Amino acid sequence: MTQGPKSLYPKEVSLTNCDKEPIHILGKIQHHGFLVACDASNHTITYCSDNISALFDKSAEDILGSSLSDLLSETITQDVLKTTSGKKSISIQLKLKDEVYVLLSHINEGNLVLEFEPLQDSGDPYNYQNQLSEIVAQLNAATDEQEMCDVTATLIKEFFGYDRVMIYRFDENWDGIVVSEARASNLEEWLGLRYPASDIPQQARKLFLRQGVRIIADVKSEPVAIQAFGGKEQDNPIDLSISETRASSPIHIEYLENMKVGASLTAAIISKGTLWGLIACHHYSPKFVNYYQRQSCKFITQVFSSQLVLMESNTWLKKINKAANLRSKLIEKITKDWDIHKGLTQGEATMLSLTEAAGAAVFIDGKLKRVGVTPKKKEIKALIAALQERATDDFVTTQLVEELPEMTALQEKASGVLCLFLSNTKKDALLWFKPEKVKTVTWAGNPDKKVLVDKDERLTPRKSFEAWSVQQEGKSAPWQEYEITAAEALKQDISEIILEKYDEIKELHNLLKVAYEDLETFSYSVAHDLRAPLRGVDGFAQIIKEDYFDHLDEFGQSSIETIIDSATQMNRLIDDILAFSMVSQAAMHKDSFSMNKVVADVLKLLAVKQEYPAIKIKVQEEMPKAYGDQKMVAQVVQNLLTNALKYTQDAENPSVEIGYTQEDGKGYYFVKDNGIGFDQIHEKRIFKLFNRLVSDAYEGSGIGLTIAKRIVKKHNGSIKVKSEVGVGSTFLFNLES
Amino acid sequence: MNSDYILSIEDNNTDIVLMNRIFKKSIPEFAIKHITDGQEAMAYVESETFRSHLPKLILLDIKVPKLNGLEILKRFRKKEEFQAIPVVMMSSSDRKDEIEKAYELGANSFMEKPRTYPELSKALPALINYWIVYNK
């Protein structure tokens, strides 16, 4: 501390800056103690408390500057000088003026600090040992954290006789909550009350880490000032960080007074190097607990801490094991049928069981699957999109709306979100959701009014500690370490599976490509090789018809006709199969072209006027130009037209209309007829290979529409049909979606 | 054998029978000689018989055993003295690459084999007329 004396405590300190209050160099000790400090190297006494004359018949002025050996007997001095820096205090019992004192010595910043406090022990040491082992036994027997806290609170109250013993636990914001309490029956209950972090400021928490157990023996007693040798103590304050008798900060004293507390004991519960919580004991009158009792208390907290760590790691281990088992089950499921979505969300074991979340979702390849209680699909997709925009990779929150204010719709079901992206591209994600947990948080006094201004315009701690309830919204239960660990492990597994799957699919794709090409070649040559024998069938039937027809009876003649007809049909089928395999084989030559010209050409090619004189053909003038492979598109038009003509020829006033229309904001070319139509439920079937809805009365291979669809798809377009039996069909297509 | 004749290199028996019939019925003024594999065809082309009595037209199927039609065409067209003989390439397909190749190697025509007998019986005489009668 380099601040000048004027800026030191108390006048300048307020609650808003009480984080800066120099509580370790207050220059005072508590009323029950005495302090002497000497230079650790030459043993010249440099500090002593004002009240020292009560112990030694020498005034502070006499003592300051003299040697330690002038004050203490030789044996005591010898013992005291064994104190080493950084080590634990040495405690020596000694009798001064007919009273037994405990002399505690430690070295801090070059000062050998000796503190005297009364022993005041009336307890039976045997009983005391028993009680202590009882506490340890009960702590060891506790099966969970709550039970441990309850046992500790009750036993400490019995052991030390404080009016109220609380186990006070810090949350992630250093707010404290009373998780267990043992109290005298006349006292109001404080269990469940919450204290803002400012009640135990940061530097006080730091001191707890160093010191462990502290008492304030009498809140109302006046602290004793410390004198320094050759000057004011404030100019060269003594560091009392590890002093046992150090006086408390006036703000803390005021705080306790506001609570009507007369004495207190506070013991730090330290877990894994951080302050887990406190054992806070309040007494409503002065109460002193001697050094050995405090050491016992410290011992209890140590047992408590180790038990806590053990319990936590046991629970953690169990949960991690469970999660690992579950994960291997999930992976097994996924690899069985290569369906990540199904594997993670269906069946008994799902990704949800990996955590304590209420819902989960997997988003891979643009496909979203959910399990449990989750927001709507649309909402989850919006969330993912928002998270993809963020710079950070994974996302964990217990208060989504606080972080992403536009996500208010998700507050109820997903205030808690854990989102892990499967790769840096942030394309695929695993998500878990925890619902909003609306809860009533009860503060000990209004935490927003913790700072009050008194009549001297000085800030003081709040006066009221009456329960102050606040409804807490928009927050979920916390994400525990094991949940995140398990989720991350799953993410790792899935990423590997995806990579593996990707490789397999790539290989499969290559195989398929080869097989597909083979098939194309195959169907092409098969179709060709069918031609020659077919020409034979047809040719020889024709020869018989030409030369021997008259020699045949009626049945023979019709048989020959049937052979010729069948050969013709077979030829048409081969044409269609060839055309079909051509679609996928042929390279596209895209260009812009006139649809009207294509339609006119096709009408000419099909000789519609001659072949179907009864059908009225209507073509819309000036249809928009199309962009694509003109030859292929002509094939589409031809197939749709052939189809329309075929099924319309027997209708009354048959008509076929070709044009362009808008539907759902997209443009479509259409071919509309008033033919026999079909049931709309067959919409999908009709585009499938060799799938004919009608009887053989209508000739056709069942390939034409499949080819049309394939061509349209090759153009990234879409094709659909609307039909009604007896009314007609309308086929619509466009070339890019 | 002093009459005008057409040389056909064709392995399909059905087609051979059909072609013979068409020639007999519709173009009896021309004889037709069939050779059914590529090697035999090349041997014939290089023989004295061939040189002393050249065909008026060669109908060359693209798919014949031992030596395919395109190869036969390539070798045939290398010989100076045979340049004037029209060669009509025949195929069951209308594959663009085959057609291009055939013309490149010196075919005078490319005909996709008609699918039916009636079509064939119209196509063959028309072809003969075009290459032989008109060009005379």
TrEMBL record, chain A:
Residues 144-302 form the Phytochrome chromophore attachment site domain. Residues 525-737 form the Histidine kinase domain. Its EC number is 2.7.13.3. It catalyses: ATP + protein L-histidine = ADP + protein N-phospho-L-histidine. CDD domains: HisKA. GO terms for molecular function: phosphorelay response regulator activity; phosphorelay sensor kinase activity; photoreceptor activity; protein kinase activator activity. GO terms for biological process: detection of visible light; osmosensory signaling via phosphorelay pathway; regulation of DNA-templated transcription. Keywords: Chromophore, Kinase, Phosphoprotein, Photoreceptor protein, Receptor, Sensory transduction, Transferase. The keyword Signal does not apply. PANTHER family: BACTERIOPHYTOCHROME, TWO-COMPONENT HISTIDINE KINASE. In the N-terminal section; belongs to the phytochrome family. This is histidine kinase. It comes from Leeuwenhoekiella blandensis (strain CECT 7118 / CCUG 51940 / KCTC 22103 / MED217).
Automatic annotation (TrEMBL), chain B:
InterPro entries: CheY-like_superfamily, Sig_transdc_resp-reg_receiver, TCS_response_regulator. It comes from the Bacteria. CDD domains: REC_Rcp-like (cd17557). The modification 4-aspartylphosphate is found at D61. Residues 5-128 form the Response regulatory domain. Keywords: Phosphoprotein. SMART domains: REC (SM00448). One of its GO terms (biological process) is phosphorelay signal transduction system. PANTHER family: RESPONSE REGULATOR RCP1-RELATED, TWO-COMPONENT SYSTEM REGULATORY PROTEIN. This is Response regulator. It comes from Leeuwenhoekiella blandensis (strain CECT 7118 / CCUG 51940 / KCTC 22103 / MED217).
